[in-house]
Amino acid sequence: MLYRLLAVVGYPAHLLNRQLSGPLGRVGLSRVPGALPVGLALAALAITSGRATLEAYEARPVAQPATISDVVEGRVGSGFWIAFDGLLVDGPHITGTGVFAGRQTTEVERAYYLFADPAAPEQAVVVRAPERIPALEAADGPVRLDGTITEDPVNMRNVLAEWDPTALHPEVSVIDSRLVAYGFETPFVEPSWIPTILFGTLAALALVGALVRQPILRRSAAGAGAPGLTPIALAIHGDVATPRGPVRLFGTPAQLEWMSVEEVARTRWRYWGAALGDVRGDVEAAVRGQGSEERLVLHGPIGSVIWPVENVAALELEAGDAFLGTHRAPAVRLRGPGVTATLTFADDRIRDAALAELRGADGPA
User: Does residue 365 lie within any of the structural domains?
Assistant: First the structure.
């Protein structure tokens, strides 16, 4: 279960490695897993997103200290959420107020209070509340309030005409265009952590997956295996040497078969001869007279890989099951000069036969 889980976790990174191997190879970074730069970029995005979200939380609006005189004299603009001290002069006055809901106007009851500035009792402001507030009415002396300064000249003129608090308190001047909406805070849109979590999760998958060799091999004992089934179909995952240098393969279809020395040389020429500057006649002359000696060769489609199995004694062979994503296949891992790869097969019988062929191969390349 652990092997399968690791394979599933590492599979997205395997796909990135496969897709980015070409572009990275063209800039001389063929040995860098493609998931690594992608993971680092995603990690940078996660960090940036996290910092921006924290800054958004730190920018949460708070009530700004002010005075009623600041409101009356216009030193604080409309729409600001303020906290101030007030001395109750009159109220509550309960009356209906029109509230817009889309295209319709709904009549609701509101409680209006008149509060004066304790430091300048002649200046007062109307405070509107959704309902009566007994604690304010029972207070003996200045109280601490908060609310948002609101421009509402139409409703204010109607309320003041009906209430007329200045007739009862001629020593107080009241502005008729602004009021304070009690307890109404500046709206705050809660920032989302979803982008940070998403980028962080993708970065973790890419970076952890870049460290997981795909496919993952769970070693197990192989059967005896009998040679003689070549050519054997398989898939190559990993690094294999070629005349053009090492190549990295991601499940490339290939086969294991015996070829004569001359056939090996000619196949090499068909794959890369022109690109390497070889001339076909030179290749044929080089192998002429070497007889019909055969070599075990691992090769894929033209232009991908052809690797004569060399120095078998130096090869480390491990049999087992390879896990790639949700797929499991019998496999052999090769480690040695010119190769670090995992070969996967259709079934255990073919895997065991390939292992027998590899162990029986010998002779120079």
Answer: no
